Amino acid sequence: MTLPAALAAALAPPDPATLPLPPEARPAEGVRLLRAVPYAVRDGSRPLELDLWLPDEPADRPLPVVVFVHGGAWLTGLRDDPGPGLRAWRPGPFARLARAGFAVACPDYRLSGEAAFPAQLDDLTGMVGWLRLRAAELGLDAGRIVTWGESAGGHLAALLALEPGTAVRGCVVWYAPADLTAAPPGSPEALLLGADATPALARAASPVARVTPDAPPFLILHGADDSVVPHAQGEALAAALRAAGTEVTFRSVPGADHLWVGAADDTVGECFTATLEFARAHCG
């Protein structure tokens, strides 16, 4: 069926680059929140949205941006969930970053049950493009971006930082997979790659294989007792970055399993503080 041009144009989804922004919420003192802002509308998929946390007080220059990518084994997850170690914080970690002078973007991305890799990376690079298009309106400096993610989100945050053209200033990785080339059948990694996965696709989905001398600085934090994503995965990414001559700090967190389970509250707080200090250092 062929539609008249005028009708086809009327039926086309709205362009997220021009949609009105939602009303601001005030989830914590000194913080504004734009919740569920559409950034992409793709055929055959749910609209993709982001939450944008902002300082309440006007800034004297455009704000640097922390892009937080949620975990969930690429199978599930909520864009505003920083993991169990930080869920009960009041104010939460995103509000704390906003109070420290950052904008924080928390995007959706298509899960592995919706689309195979590289859809997830395509979504996140598109989200960075949306931030750039609306930077002046939102008071953002899209040239000063640090990515941060936990678990599967850390994997995607690393890929986004390593993607040519994104101009990311730095990346913080919490307990994330870095090499997907030996993914067992039926594992979350294999489901991410999809039924038609090839060795080339597995390499393309592996941050260790995407490192170049142009990679931005990295901070990698990994639990010494991680029983889900082996500690060696974080070490391998750090080694690849060092071999490329890139600035990298790797910290093993004693007594911590995946998601910081088993770590003391003070230790989890130190991980967040290190993340904030890294963002400050590389978005100055």
Notes on the structure:
The termini are far apart. The chain contains ten helices and nine strands. The model has no long low-confidence stretch (mean pLDDT 95). The longest helix is centred in the last third of the chain and has 18 residues, at 265-282. The protein is globular. The chain has a nine-stranded mixed beta sheet, sandwiched between helices. It is α/β, with parallel strands linked by helices.
Task: Give a short synopsis of this structure.
The chain has 284 residues and is an alpha/beta fold. It has helices at residues 5-11, 93-99, 119-133, 135-138, 152-162, 188-193, 199-204, 207-210, 231-243, 265-282, and strands at residues 25-28, 31-40, 48-55, 63-69, 103-107, 140-150, 170-174, 218-223, 248-253.
Largest sheet, if any?
9 strands, mixed
Low-confidence stretches: none
What fraction, in percent, of the residue positions are helical? 25-40%
Could you give the order of the helices and strands?
A: HEEEEHEHHEHEHHHEHEH
Quote the average pLDDT.
95
Tell me the overall shape: globular
Strand content: 15-25%
* CA-atom Rg in angstroms: 19 Å
According to DSSP, the number of beta strands is 9
Order of strands side by side in the largest beta sheet? 1-2-3-5-4-6-7-8-9
N- and C-termini, Cα separation: 54 Å
Structural class: alpha/beta
What's the tally of helices?
10
